[in-house]
Amino acid sequence: MEQNNYDFGLIGLGVMGRNFILNVADNGFSAFGHDLDDEKVNALIQEGGDENKVTASRDVETFVNALSKPRKIMLLVPAGKIVDSVIEGLIPLLDKDDIIIDGGNSFFTDTDRREAYLANKGIHFFGAGVSGGAKGARKGPSIMPGGSKEAYSYVQPIFEAVSAKFKGEPCVAYLGPKSAGNYVKMVHNGIEYGLMQLTSEIYDLLKKAGGLSNDELHQTYAEWNEGRLQSFLVEITSQIFKQEDEFGDGRLVDQILDKAKQKGTGKWTSQNAMDLGIPIPSIDIAVSMRELSALKDERIMADDIYGRPEPEPLEKGDLVRMAEEALYFSFIMSYAQGLHQLADASKEYGYELNITTIARIWRAGCIIRAALLDDISKAFEANNALSNLLLAPAFVEKVNATVASARELVAYGAKNGVPLPGLSNSLTYFDAYTSGRLPLNLIQAQRDHFGSHTYERLDRDGIFHTEWED
After folding, report:
1. How far apart are CA 51 and CA 339, in angstroms?
2. Model pLDDT for residues 205-222, shown as the tens digit of each residue
3. Please, what are the domains in the chain?
4. Facing residues of 10 across strands?
5. Beta-strand runs (E) in 140-242
6. Residues 171-187 pLDDT 10s
7. What's the Cα-to-Cα distance from 408 to each of 164, 212, 331, 401, rounded to whole Å?
8. How far apart are CA 361 and CA 322, in angstroms?
9. What positions carry a catalytic annotation?
10. CB 455 within 8 A of CB 464
C-alpha cells in the first residue's frame, strides 16, 4: 500500500492494542500499528496476515507517514507519564487537525490538560474509555468517547464498526465535551469494583453458610446468569468454579491467593465522589476491601488471636434464593450510586451527559454489561431528569421485592462472623437514602456547640447559632 493511505493508527501493541487494531482491520478499515518492541510489532504483522489491511513498524516516522489525513492515532499505553511522552514524540510529526485518541484509563483532569495543550498546536485530542478486556477489544468492546465532537466525527465510523452490538445497536456514542469519555470510564470501573466485591461476598456466604461445592457454585451462578442477574461477571464467575488446577488436584479458585490488586480507577472514583459530595458506599468499601486484602500476614495473625463464631448452617434452597435476591438488590445499589455520581459530575464539569445513552452503550461489550442495564436505560429514557435510579417507579418494585433477603443475610453475616461489607453498605445506603429523617440534626448541634458552625431549622428559614449552655 502507498504511504498516507492507512485509515487508522494505533500506538501500543500489547494484548489490548493488538486485539483492537485487528478488530479495526476485520471491519474493513486499514490500520497501522506502532510499538518499540520488535516482538509486538512482528506478532501483529504475523497475526494480521495481509499487510495491506494491517501492519506495524517500530519507527514512529514511518508510522505517522503511513496514515491518511487527518491522521487518526489511538494510544493504548499505560496511563500517566507514558501518555505525555508518546504525545511529545508525535507532535513534531503531526499536521494541523490531526487527531490523537487516548484509549487508556487516564485520569480525567489529565485529559483536560492534554486537550488544551494540543488545541494550542492545532491538534485534536480526546479520551475514549474502552471496556471489555482483551477479548472485548478483539470481538467488540464498549467504547466511551468524549472531547471534540468534530474530531470524533472522523473516528465515528470506525468505532461504530468495531464496537460490541446490542440488538444491532453499536455500544459506542459521543458522550460529551472535554474529558467526558475518560470520566464515564472511570465511574464504569468504580461500579465494576462494587459488582465484583458483591459477587465475591455472595460466593463466600454460599460456601460458609450452605457448604456449596464448586460444582454447586458453578451450577448456581450459571442458573442465575439465565435470569435477571444475567451479566458478564456472573457468567465468568460460574465458569471460574469449573476450572481445574493444572498444578494439583481440585479447582484452581481454591489455590488463588486472596489478595486483590488494583490499578487506581476505583480509588479515583471514590476520591472524586467525595469531592463532589456524592455517596457511593458500595464502591468505597470495594476499594477498601482490596486494600484490606493486601494485609494478608496481619489478617492471618488476627485470625489466630480473635475467636470467631462457627457459621450456623442454612438450608441450601433458602440460602440460594436469598443470595440471588440480595445480589440483585445490591447490584441495583451499585449502579444507582455510580449513575448518581455521573449525573452530578455532568453538572459540575459541564459534560452534558445523557445517562440513558451511557446505560445503552454498557449493555454489551463491557465488563459491567448486564440485563439490568436495559431496564436502567428505559428508566432514564422515561424520565431523563431522574436524579437517582431508586426514584424510578420500575425499580421501586424490584427493590421492594429483594430488600428483605438483603436484610436477612446482612444480619446472618453479623451474627456468624461472615464479612459482608459490600452487601451491608448497599443496605445501609438504601436505608439512609430512603429515610426522611436522619440523626444528622445532632451532628449539626455538636458542630455549632464546639465551633459555632451554625445550623438550619425545620420550622423557619435562616441560618442560626446558639450560645449553648455548659
Report:
1. 43
2. 999 999 999 999 999 999
3. 8-178 (3.40.50.720), 185-433 (1.10.1040.10), 439-470 (1.20.5.320)
4. 33, 74
5. 142-146, 165-166, 169-170
6. 999 999 999 999 999 99
7. 38, 19, 17, 13
8. 30
9. 185, 192
10. yes
